[in-house]
Amino acid sequence: xxxxxxxxxxxxxxxxxxxxxxxxxxxxxxxxxxxxxxxxxxxxxxxxxxxxxxxxxxxxxxxxxxxxxxxxxxxxxxxxxxxxxxxxxxxxxxxxxxxxxxxxxxxxxxxxxxxxxxxxxxxxxxxxxxxxxxxxxxxxxxxxxxxxxxxxxxxxxxxxxxxxxxxxxxxxxxxxxxxxxxxxxxxxxxxxxxxxxxxxxxxxxxxxxxxxxxxxxxxxxxxxxxxxxxxxxxxxxxxxxxxxxxxxxxxxxxxxxxxxxxxxxxxxxxxxxxxxxxxxxxxxxxxxxxxxxxxxxxxxxxxxxxxxxxxxxxxxxxxxxxxxxxxxxxxxxxxxxxxxxxxxxxxxx
Length: 349
What we know:
Helix content is about 70%, strand content about 0%. It contains 17 helices and no strands. The N and C termini lie far apart (about 40 Å).
């Protein structure tokens, strides 16, 4: 029922209007969040609210999905054939057992990586062994280490041992996890090929933002902050693949960008939760991906995705840097905390 209502509102009012409707329906909680943001702008010690950060993230993410799918600014009513596609995608992704046709398998090396987190004394040796077994993984890790998002020196990082020295073990764990999942995002379809590329770029930026946020607020969770971003990104990708699969079964139906945006927004978070549970991730990661306000990682997820999306929209000339910073300010994020993160993300253009 909830999913049906979400689709109906998205189709009739437009996804952005639906998100705003949710904020208004939140009543006193939304008003309190707004007051907190105003208090921050007036110089008080207001604490950012994860619900407000999630709301802002939903709004800017909608803009990114519309850009990726080249969807019109105003949502359109669905024709019966498109509604059938919508229902087929929802049915395929909500079965009791995840269909391997749509849901990605957990990377083979992921359990080893998670175990390497448990013992800091042997983390360096374990990480080196994990990476050394896969030349492609090694190349991807070094590429990420030398990217504008992570590079801290003009001297290039050419070996994994050098990456450990320069970046540290905690940061390298996140890079390994990111490199493991990157192949999943490579576009192999002709319809809307821009979406997986933009989703991946947002994911890289968001993972870096979440890590930097965690370093300042909960340094023991910097690896988990990156991992939760990666898990969150898998849901939209699965929805994209399932939707195009359903369209391929009905070649007479032209893929509808408005429906793709609505499907991604409505089903993506649900599918991410299913993947987190199916991959047997920790209870903390599952709680964060379910947006539990009691879990500290939830804020890292919301802030990471928000800043990652805003910075990508800036590179696409959809918003200005001032507009991106203003959105972060409205959430109540302290300027001293956000400034270095924003500088790093925008330096990656």
